[in-house]
# Entry
Amino acid sequence: MKNKLKKLLKENLNDRQRRILIVKECLEIDDILQISNITGISINHIYSELKKIKYLVRTKDQVPSTYPVPEKDSAIIYNNISKSVNDTSNTSVSIAESISENISQHKYNDRYLDIWGIYPKKTDKRSGERKFLLLLKKYSVEFLKGCVMNYLDSVRDREPDYIKSLAVFFGRDQHYLEYSEKEDEHMKVMDSEPDNSLKNLLN
# Structure
């Protein structure tokens, strides 16, 4: 993490760009909403800044490339106060350390950790937990875990990099529903139960 941070501090980036890349590169967080929550930068501004520096999301196996220098040089400003490069570097280090400490102190939900422990793709952990907890308002833990197990069974021959993260699986596209138990399976269970209706008892 320190090597990546030192590299970013040497790049000719504005403060907003540097904060975004600290989260992406040093903390390895790619979820835009999560980056926005951590840095306090709006989603629109995050996309705008990434576009300015022509940032391309890379896999872990790829070698990081040099970030293009913005077309116009400008003084580095933090909290509306012009600072020297050294002052800005120190501030960026403090931001990175603070972010890292906050994430490490977060206590995850035990029921989510049970699923996380068996899930092979270890990315977007915090984002996945938020979406999991939202789904618990509608579904049981057993139902969601069953969906996960069915999905993992269908992708057991794939490398972890090529399967959905839990954040995506539990996300707004509702991929988990594609791996819930089939309706006909529920019907079989219902058909096998004894008929205790009033009409049947009277016969």
